[in-house]
Specification:
This protein is of the alpha/beta class. It is about 35% helix and about 15% strand. It has helices at about 25-35, 55-60, 85-95, 120-135, 145-160, 175-185, 210-215; strands spanning about 10-15, 40, 65-70, 100-105, 140, 205, 225.
Length: about 230
Amino acid sequence: MAKLGQAKPSVPVFVSSTFTDMQDYRRKVQDALTQLETIVRGMEQFGSKPGSPVDECLRIVGSCMVYVGIFGMRYGSIPDGHELSMTHLEYNEAQRLNLPSLIYLLDENQAIPAKDVETGTGADKLHALKEHLKKRHVVSFYTTPEDLQARILHDVPALLKDLGAEVSSVPTSEPTDDEILVQFRTLPKLFRNRSVTVEFVGGRFDSASEEDCEALDLDIGATVWACPLG
C-alpha cells in the first residue's frame, strides 16, 4: 500500500486490437483503465521510435504487466516479413511472457458494418485465432463500447488486486441513465447492495429475470425492470 504523500504504484496495461474498426471501443476501454489509475499502453502511444514497428510494438508489450485483447471482426494488417497480423503477434508475445490476460470477443449477433467485417484469408485466420482464444482463456463477449467498458471496470480491479496493486474505487464520475441501464443489463452483480435512482418518462416495464433477481438479492416475481421508449 502506498504511504501518505506517495503516488500509488500504477500498473501498465497493454490494450491490443485492430484500430480503424475499434476506435470507439478503445476509447471506452482507455477511459475505464484511466479511472482505475493504470498506465494505458497501445498503438496510440507508439509515435516515432527507432527500430521496426513490430520490434517496437513487442517491446512495449514486454514493458506491461497486464494484456487486454479486444477482438472484433477484422484480423488486421500483416507486417512485411510476417505471416501473422500485428494484433496476433501482440497476443503471442503476451502469452510468451505469461502476462495475465483478459480476452474480449465481439458478439457476432450484433449489427456490424460491412466495412468492419474481414473476408477471405483474413477471416479464416481470425476464426482460427478466436477458436484458440476460446480454448485457452475464459473469454468475455461484448456488444457495445459501453458494454465493453462495463466489463473492463468489473474484471480489471480483481486482476490488479491479484497483482498486489492498490485499486481505486470506481467509477470516478457519475454514469448517465443510459450507461446505468446498459451496465445493469450486462452485469447485474455490479449493482448488488447499491441504490440507484433512474428517472423515466414513459417506457415499458416487464418482470425482472430470475438471473437478475438472484444477482441482486431481490424477490423473484415481485421485481420489475424498465426500458425507456426510443
